[in-house]
Amino acid sequence: MATAAAHRTAATSAYGAQDTADTAAYERAFDAAVAADERIEPRDWMPDAYRATLVRQIAQHAHSEIIGMQPEANWITRAPSLRRKAILMAKVQDEAGHGLYLYSAAETLGTGRDELLDKLHSGRQKYSSIFNYPTLTWADVGAIGWLVDGAAITNQVPLCRCSYGPYARAMVRVCKEESFHQRQGYELLLALSKGTPEQHAMAQDAVNRWWWPSLMMFGPPDDESQHSAQSMAWKIKRHSNDELRQRFVDICVPQAESLGLTLPDPDLRWNEERGHHDFGAIDWTEFWEVLKGNGPCNEQRITQRRRAHDEGAWVREAAAAYAAKRSGATGPGGTATGPGGTEGAQA
Amino acid sequence: MTATVSASAALALGDDALVLSHRLGEWAGHAPVLEEEVALANIALDLLGQARVLLSMAGDEDELAYLREERAFRNLQLVEQPGGDFAHTIARQLYFSTYQHLLYADLAAGDGPFAPLAAKAVKEVAYHRDHAEQWTLRLGDGTDVSHERMRLACAELWRFTGEMFQPVEGLDADWAGMEQAWLESIGAVLGRATLSVPEGPRTGAWSAGAGRQGLHTESFGRMLAEMQHLHRSHPGASW
User: Fold this and answer.
1) Which of A197, A312, B7, B203 is the most exposed place for a label (fewest CB within 10 A)?
2) Which residue of A has its CA nearest to B52?
3) pLDDT at residue A198, as a whole number
């Protein structure tokens, strides 16, 4: 921890006068901490670009959690058994919880939830494009769990070792829950696959529709990925998009076999030489189109999010007004002491 | 220990929990603030858990939830009322959770067949009641807009509250005592929230207060249509 200690001392002295001259020294200490696999913490000095990259990535992740609630919540009121309904409701609730941890992680970098939500609502920040696809049948709930959450875990497990402490720690918790989600999706599809012919067909149709968009979740190929190199150097990112995509394909192939379902790719086959599965070409035109806003649900998702936020404005205002009345005695800036706290006032 | 489970009592309690859970589940992705996404889902999950235990005491939980017609449901009309705005949801929660808390505390203290469930659920419901009370205070004593919305919601749902204290066959509880305690508690919370106790009747013609007899309001059929359609579309399938 010697490096980190030095690094923190540098950070502390940064509040003094001669910061320009010392920047190079802080930067060296920061680089050394990253190189030694130590965690960067909120009060540590960090390059502005590192901070901005993290805020962008954590915000996008948080937004994905809360937008991602929509396609699944679409089936809560229609879940075909009470057990499935309870599991789905708990899963959607987890996504909201993940959103909360992640917005809090972004807050440790000095960017509040209000500002980030505003950027989401105005289209200045993005969420994962996968949620711009519709959930058309009950089997889609299973396909999202198995494939989308499976891809998310493949992406996110390495983030548990991300160089930024609060993000890495949030991811440990998120990944535990995601792995439960992935299993429930697999188990849901298995029940359908082994069920009636209609249920089996429903499961196969969902896998057909979700397979390729799931592969796109790893982002563009390495040679077209604009943020990758710097993020790898900072140890925000640990593996390239193509490496993670390959890992995901290799995991899914035997799982699809056990499910009794086919992955919709005629070029998918084991390559003995590479020790990996080869797979067909991804339609990147579709990826870029969806990213630009032309996916099946882009408009619908953001409209629902904005509407929920706008229609809830009077509720948040009431909570803030109530908290302010309760804290009247301590004056502005005092701690609100109203019963139940002030959580409603924060968003 | 006691008496066999009364199926009609299990259905009355189970249907209340099932239907309110469903209504709360409609909020997913629409709540006014992220913390409420978590809180409303949490309450819905608690209620769904209670419903599953209770319906299983009366038969097969899925057959009962998915294959009964509207007229066979025994829930209170209060819990089937459509969400409305957040104030309506909070008013419905306030009225129901206060009632359910009193009822479960009463059942937990006895030695009837519902005592074990009630003893566990009463702890969850205490949280639901607290959540509803805190929001009643915030909305009632928040802004002019929130005050007016909360006043309206409390008034609109008031006529569905008398039904809660009609004795349920097979449930041994002090109904008159509970009603008194409910009125005192609701009066106190509304008073602290700068709201008045609504003035209208708490029961009326059968259209406001006969859910326990299988008479429901118009929106309930539509709710069941949505809830049951997938299950009914695949007769005999397992999920």
Assistant:
1) A197
2) A82
3) 98
Report chain B's mean pLDDT, rounded to a whole number. 94
Mutation pick from B30, B52, B152 vs chain A, by most beta carbons of A within 10 Å, is B30
Q: Is residue A182 classed exposed, middle or buried when 0-12, 13-18 and 19+ CB atoms within 10 A define those classes?
A: buried
Which is higher by pLDDT, B20 or A7?
B20
CB contact under 8 A, B134 and A340: yes
Pick from B32, B44, B137: CB nearest A312: B32
ipTM of the shown complex: 0.96
What is the H or E stretch that residue A133 is in? none
Q: Find residues 109-138 of chain B whose CB sits inside 8 Å of chain A.
A: 130-131, 134-135, 137-138
**Interface contact flag, A339 B30, Cβ < 8 Å:** no
pLDDT band at A148 (very low <50, low <70, confident <90, very high): very high
Q: What angle do CA B218, B219, B221 make, to 5 degrees?
A: 80
**Which of A82, A188, A316 is nearest residue B65 as measured by Cβ atoms?**
A82
Cβ A77–B226 below 8 Å, yes or no? yes
Owner of token pair 């007004």:
A321
pLDDT digits (tens, 9 = 90+) for B111-133: 999 999 999 999 999 999 999 99
3-state secondary structure of A15: coil
**Residue A321 C-alpha, separation from nearest chain B C-alpha, in angstroms:** 5
The CATH code belonging to domain B3-233 is 1.20.1260.10
pLDDT band for B2, please (50, 70, 90 cuts).
very low
Contact between A149 and A185 (Cβ < 8 Å) = yes
**Cα–Cα nearest to A147, from A122, A104, A123, A178:** A178
**Environment class of residue B231 by beta-carbon count within 10 Å: exposed (0-12), middle (13-18) or buried (19+)?**
buried
Q: What is the pLDDT of residue B202?
A: 85
